[in-house]
Please model this.
Amino acid sequence: MRSLRDSLTSRWVIALVLVFLAIGVSLRLHPWSRHPARHRRGAPATAIHPAAPAQQAARPKTSPALPPQPAASSSPAAPAPLVTPPAIDTFPRPVTTWLEAQIELARRGISSGSIDGIGGAQSVAALRAFQENEGLEATGQLDPETRARLVLSAPPLAPITVTAEDLAGLQPLSPTWLGKSQQTALAFETALELVAERSHANPALLRQLNPSVDWAAISPATSVLAPAVGRVEVAAKVALLRLRLGDHVLEARDDAGSLLAHFPVSIARDVEKRPVGGLHVTVIIPNPDFTFDPEVFPESAEARELGRKLILPPGPNNPVGVAWIGLDRTGYGIHGTPSPEQVGRTESHGCFRLANWDASTLLDLVWVGLPVMVEP
Model:
């Protein structure tokens, strides 16, 4: 009996040893069992697979990186402010960016001021004017319905060649009123200014589109890329000019009230100089000269010292730009400006100031006796 008990005891000892060995092997094979926190509800699946991060880290460092992706937008209709045009494109097609929208709107006589590819306040106002005229919701956004209606008829950008004649016509602009009055013309100062006016573009946009061009040393026959607006033509006859002072907007409308043209405009700094009510066009003058009256510019030290009037020659840098449309109130008119980027952002001495290209468009639309309604 004793030998039998000894034999059974030995067998129990061996069995216990085997059990302990099995437990040890199990712990070695499953180390996560020692970290109960990794089994909390909601923990990522990769938390129980420690090999996964090691596999990701082992990817070769030479794998090609993805190009930067644009940030997600809460509005899928919001376009990029400026894109490089595709090498191959077909037309007509809907606009895709604010740059294309500004250009196509300008072709239709709906100006956003200096084309810059950015959906600023003037661009939003122009787009709303288009949407209202098309019977769309005036969101001011390039939503799918608006893009479907605002169709590019031709490439938005095109080359402009700067000629030897263009460069020969450039003139430095005198900083004084007296000096300006002694110039042969108040012409463009630089090739950049010239191309910007011809293409209705902001100079900053032209620099962005033509990064390799040295605008300070441009040579004849240089070709630069610019917005392709062209001559703006409106077929219908204008029945009314409507100036909305609060919105800094001038509109041309036909007999039915439909919009024919829309321009940003600068208005008088002093409220009492804003002629609210009904007016009429009395005179239309392209490329006018300008009579400098010192009494109108009391803020100018030179004006206070001159004590006499001066006649300044015509040109795009003339204080009234390339157009004068006189109204039936003495000293008031609609005109251009040598500083198109400031239109709608700064104020005038009393007149209504447009970018030169918009003033030129308006010259072809107005007629003597045309009613002008100025609204607050």
Notes: Residues 1-10, 15-81 have pLDDT under 50 and may be disordered. The chain has eleven helices and 14 strands.
